[in-house]
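Dear colleagues,

As part of the handover before I leave the project, I'm documenting each prediction I ran so the next person doesn't have to rerun anything. This entry is a single chain, and its sequence is reproduced below.
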Amino acid sequence: MTLLFAVARLGFIAALLPYALDWRSPMFASVRLWALCGFILCPLAIGLLEIRLLSTNRAGARMARAISMIALTSAVLALGSTVALEARFHWMRNEVLRADPRQLERLGRHVIVGYRDLTELRDWIERRAVAGVFIGARNVRGSTVDEIRQRIATLQDIRRRQRLSPLWIATDQEGGAVERLSPPLARSASLADIINAQSDTSERASAVKAYASRQGRDLADIGVNVNFAPVVDLNHRVVNPGDRLTRIHERAISADPDVVADVADHYCAALWQAGVRCTLKHFPGLRRVYEDTHRESADLTVGVAELSATDWVPFRALMHRAGAFTMLGHVRLTAIDRERPASISKAVITGLLRGDWRSDAILITDDFCMGAVTDSREGIGAASVATLNAGADLILVSYDPDQYYPVMHALLKADAAGRLRQDVLGDSNRRLSSALAARPDGTAATSPKR
């Protein structure tokens, strides 16, 4: 019985240890305080128990004592790792908050953040340390439309007082399965549902325009100026039962690239007329990918010629459009770069998009809190430096706001060490300034520019 109890203790701490070694991972974002308590108290309790048992049972069975020693060592490792990671996080946070305000502003214009703590978000904005805010379901739960509108207006008032350009206020309001602001905004069908109900091309165009106009008005009314839609990944009917988050087969418009390009064109035009920018996602295309990049790395193994004739048709047709962003996904485009996700790949961003395609579009990454980035060889910090050096304009850190600190800490250190390419950042600043100044009628805004 003593041996069985020792094995049970060892099994528990062995199961806990891998999570303790990476407990600052975004997977714990929604339960961070409870996780911290658990990762401190559980190893501490087991460690103290093992010490007590070892000291009072010196003549016990050799096997039980050996297991107890291993459990004690594992408990100390788990506790030490948790404390060390927490201390490192607070050190990085302190370094960021104490950074030179001008440097923080210069780099912050390339980061869009989600938030859980409105006070912390306001502090970032007061410090001019972010370019925009992602509004998710957790931020509007239980709120009315008027309350959300006022909240966003208050944040923009800070910018006006600072004589800076408005914040990018972004959300995911695709329609159908992904509607972060519904409720309180009214729910709507997906774009796929809209086109499936229309067999005539002109009627389809009218329906899409009406749909996007209504959606654009609702978003603009509360202060949202960027919508992370439409999904222009083609629907290749690849279904992974373990994919609980990406689910492109449920969100894609069509399997026909020309239909997708046409629908997305009408959608983006109508959205832009309402003053809201669309976002083409997720380049280089996710629908041929089986894995879920929210949780793990993934490879897109199709050749460039085939992708150019199919999956990339909507991107190439619409990236030039005024009022359109393009979101970079975290899959590895193996035909061009086998080592790095497309979102941080110089070969993909500098070589293909900025080079071969000569695209001057605003490129925003998919959420850097996703496993394909945080668990990558580079890690979230080095990935942040890599994506800006490659020519991306905006880094999205939406799910776990705590990841803002390692992102910004890495950018600050790279900038101080001369490892951020100033020519590339200069081009990005030009693109961002132009995008901020653009109006749907083709005129330029008169609000202050950075």
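The mean pLDDT is 93. Residues 2-96 form one domain.

All the best with the project,
I.
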